[in-house]
Amino acid sequence: MTMGVSLTRKELFDVPEGVIYLDGNSLGVLPKGAAERAQKTITEEWGAQLIRAWNSAGWMALPQVVGDQIAGLIGAPAGSVATGDTLSIKVYQALAAALTMRPERKVILSDNGNFPSDLYMAEGLIKTLDQGYALRTPAPEEVMDAITEEVAVVMLTQVDYRSGRMHDMAAITKRAHEVGAVMIWDLAHSAGAVPVDIAASGAEFAVGCSYKYLNGGPGAPAFIYVRPDIVDSIAPALSGWLGHDAPFAMELNYRPANATERMRVGTPPILQLAVLQEALKAWEGVDMADLRAASVRLSELFISEVEARCPELTLASPREAALRGSQVSFAFEHGYPAMQALIDHGVIGDFRAPNIMRFGFTPLYLDEADIIAAAEVLEDVMSNQLWKNEKYQTRSRVT
Amino acid sequence: MTMGVSLTRKELFDVPEGVIYLDGNSLGVLPKGAAERAQKTITEEWGAQLIRAWNSAGWMALPQVVGDQIAGLIGAPAGSVATGDTLSIKVYQALAAALTMRPERKVILSDNGNFPSDLYMAEGLIKTLDQGYALRTPAPEEVMDAITEEVAVVMLTQVDYRSGRMHDMAAITKRAHEVGAVMIWDLAHSAGAVPVDIAASGAEFAVGCSYKYLNGGPGAPAFIYVRPDIVDSIAPALSGWLGHDAPFAMELNYRPANATERMRVGTPPILQLAVLQEALKAWEGVDMADLRAASVRLSELFISEVEARCPELTLASPREAALRGSQVSFAFEHGYPAMQALIDHGVIGDFRAPNIMRFGFTPLYLDEADIIAAAEVLEDVMSNQLWKNEKYQTRSRVT
């Protein structure tokens, strides 16, 4: 790729007129084919084929088919990624399995920058097990030193949802394995955002969601990767019938399905899977190194434009591109109303408590002109203190 | 309702031309509004409002809004039913919570007619807990006597997926409570099929799915009911961020949300929930006693027609209507190819191993003429041994 040439495939997406969308790290935009695909699934498959569609329309295989598409984006071999459920459920599956691999150790190590739901799920599992497990959450930069021989499992989100800070996947996994710990990576802000080579990392598990950079739509299914050489020894905690070796034999006892299929649980959400499968077509032929280069270029441009225009804002992401995912955050005391004002003026980012204005960069549908235009609007909001308007002060449940 | 007057609301559903669908107990038919609702959710909400739709389109509240719609169909008060995930996940949540309520007891009682996934999830939880729990699965008719003071939790599916046999919810719950056990009802084949008064039963938990009689579509979300007086003491095993009291405060520790909201886990499947919400409109104004009367009438008619026409088939459901849900099963040694032949001739039922031909009765879109027509086709399949055709012998993964 020539430097400066855009990677955008804007023509594949429906971005609303007059909107610059810097929140693809929270909910990706609508792929053009999604509505038609949903129609087809609803009328031609569900409506016309009814129960037969589980075979005739390929519904039963869809979780694995979509899993293989995602596998290609995270450096995982075909057959090693299962889709379904939510990311929180996949975290629980991975963690429960990992703990059984190191029964003599009682420490789960994460960090205090991890997405809260990952920590909550660990907390719930620990309480449920009631076997003396402890969750440690040092600061992200102290994680490496906290990986000791007491640690059963290291569970980290590669890219920090708040700051965009990125853990060194290879180095941390290596360290975890040196002390005999199992490694789980949450790729929520990595899949489709940065190049990931999960197989090369050697990590035992990875999990992620598909409604952010993968544009699968609201509540799109999650995914789980299990390293192929260990998957056959995993006894799933959430042993649902679709993870059974013969779901329709209706046996009374659970026998895990082959390989990663065993991480399936209940009846898959076909409508959401179909839309996700359609969304993933936008990734065909995308070289993740090119995507990364474009992401870094957009991020750097945004930082320099905002720092030049908005002295009120403080960069809250690592300045060095190599340490960042595909987002940039700025801290501002009045970040909440400032973000509401910005959104009201056509630039959509989001706010994360306590004071973070967060901007995601998605080269599939953003180019440099968008970034400059966004910085201009942000400058207007800041220099004219538009955020002081009463209407931007009310906090909603979802931000 | 006058005896014999049909309850059908066929005009609300798209049943394919030339098909008589007796498999609404597996996957309900397509409600006419579903496709349009999916379009609206995809283009007007996701596409146009993007991340803002979590507030502006009411997505965040949708699981509870839909939960309240389902509550109305199972005799549960508003606010007591949460939706999301799959039925298997909801079984796990209910069971894990129930076990913590009777920490000194180690027996989970179910029956060997329960849907295998419920048993598998119990097996997975028992293994994960590793605290000496045992799962007992006597025959359904021996359950009542097996409810002893050793039992921590009684977990049963009210209507047997294979035979349609129905447990006496009031009597079993009463017995469970007499010995101090917690009661969990799986309403997969009850919700929208038979009148349920879960509040009157006094059961602590109920779970169910919405893609059968509720017509929510393939992989539609599950639901969980928790008795209001105990819900605030439940510490959810699957403690995801959307079950947190303040999901967007991004606290490091889990604090359960109010009431049944705490049974939410991860990001809800908005597309599937929207379609389900639309599907539930068909239930507005339906009196469940009328529905039950129509269901019994259709079932009785089918039994008498089939017994008169097909001596090869043996009734595998209770003959007494009061002991049956809204399905009728017949045993036949060659049930698999016979069902394939029947489907090929326009009457869709399904097969359950080892030898059960299963027929579901859904008065919202079936009338007496359909039942007689179906029996005629079945007679043709049986008396002319159409099932012997080579093409009906190949077993698929999904039946």
Quickly list its features:
Aspartate Aminotransferase, domain 1; 35% helix; 399 residues; Aspartate Aminotransferase, domain 2; alpha/beta; four-stranded antiparallel β-sheet; homodimer; 15 strands
> How many H/I helical runs of chain A?
13
Strand order of the largest sheet of chain A: 4-10-9-8-7-5-6
Question: H/E series of chain A, N to C?
Answer: EEEHHHEHEHEHEHEHEEHHHEEHEEEH
Largest sheet of chain A: 7 strands, mixed
How many independent structural domains of chain A? 2
Strand content of chain A: 5-15%
Residue-averaged pLDDT of chain A? 96
Looking at this structure, what is the CATH superfamily of the largest domain in chain A? Type I PLP-dependent aspartate aminotransferase-like (Major domain)
Q: List the uncertain runs of chain A.
A: none
Oligomer: homodimer
Largest interface: A-B, 96 and 96 residues
Main CATH class of the largest domain in chain A: Alpha Beta
CATH architecture assignment of the largest domain in chain A? 3-Layer(aba) Sandwich
Distance between the termini of chain A: 37 Å
Q: How many beta strands in the DSSP annotation of chain A? A: 15
As for the CATH topology of the largest domain in chain A, it is Aspartate Aminotransferase, domain 2
Indicate the overall shape of chain A. globular
Which range best describes the helical content of chain A: under 10%, 10-25%, 25-40%, 40-55%, 55-70% or over 70%? 25-40%
Cα Rg of chain A: 22 Å
